[in-house]
Structures are given as C-alpha cells and as structure tokens.
Amino acid sequence: MLAIGSDHGGFVLKQAIMKHLTERGIAYKDYGTYTEESCDYPDYGRAVALAVAGGECEQGIIICGTGIGISITANKVPGIRAALCGDCFSAEATRQHNDANILALGARVVGEGLALKIVDTFLDTPFSNDERHIRRISKIEG
Fold first, then answer.
1. pLDDT tier at 141 (50, 70, 90 boundaries)?
2. CATH of the domain at 6
3. Which of 3, 25, 45, 76 could tie 60 with a disulfide, CB 3.0–4.6 Å?
4. Residue 3: which H helix or E strand, with range?
5. In this structure, what are the phi and psi dihedrals at residue 102, rounded to the nearest 5 degrees?
C-alpha cells in the first residue's frame, strides 16, 4: 500500500498521480487534502510520513508547490527518508542509494508528464542492498 498526500498546491497533480496508480494497479491511501482550498502542507506531509514510518504503508508520495516544505516536514519523522526529485535520475539514485521511502514532488516545478515518469522510476527501482549504502543509511538514521 502506498500513502499519498498533498496540500492545495499539489492537489491537481495528486489527482493525476492517483489515476496513474490506479491504471498501474497500485493500491494507495489518500491522506488529503481533498480540495484546492488553501491549507497547510505540514498536515499532509506528516500524515503520509507517519503512515510509512508506522508500517501502515510501504512507501509514500507527497506533493506541494515546490516539494520543499512538505519534504522537510516528512523528514522530521524518525525512519523517513523523503527525497525531493525533479528528474528520473534522482528518483532512481535515491531508491538505489538511499532507500528513500517517500517521494516528494513540486507541482509548480515539474509538469504532469515528467511527474508520472518520476513516480514510475521511484516505484520501479529497488534498493541496491549494497553494503556501503546500508552503512551510509545507518549513519543517517543515527
């Protein structure tokens, strides 16, 4: 199960991503927001992060206008490695090297077509399980 959430700035892109996930047969839970009415990104970034950290969902996708604020929020939750990606190479590398468990996107930064490619890359790329990456992740976790 995948957790997904956005603020008002990411709402339209979140709708497109959820449609794409459905077409791919990927189950998800929407943690809001449910309208384009102005709201606070930390509420939704934290909800997704808690779902992933708590084991309710395996991975997450979070979206705000830039992806910056919502990724900072998610990364405050222990066990979360949220990566803001604006290209497919970064999405692939963060899964392979960092075992990132949440993808953050900026709806005002990337278009829908690129965002869907980034989502696919993130979801389809496994962690490398390389000893050096495991060592580095353990240093991140403290």
1. confident
2. 3.40.1400.10
3. 3
4. strand 2-6
5. -135, 135
64 is catalytic: yes
pLDDT band at 84 (very low <50, low <70, confident <90, very high): very high
Burial class for 114, CB neighbours closer than 10 Å (0-12, 13-18, 19+): middle
Catalytic annotation, pick one of 57, 64, 85, 88: 64
Is 10's pLDDT higher than 80? yes
Instruction: Quote the CA–CA distance of 70 and 92 in Å, as a whole number.
Output: 20
Q: Which pLDDT belongs to residue 142?
A: 77
Count: domains in the chain: 1
Burial zone of 128 (CB within 10 Å; 0-12 exposed, 13-18 middle, 19+ buried)? middle
Give CA–CA dist 69/115, Å, rounded: 18
- pLDDT at 17 (0 to 100): 99
Q: For residue 43, give its domain range.
A: 2-141
> Which residue among 20, 88, 97, 133 is the active-site one?
97
- CA end-to-end distance (rounded Å), the chain: 27
pLDDT tens digits for range 22-51: 999 999 999 999 999 999 999 999 999 999
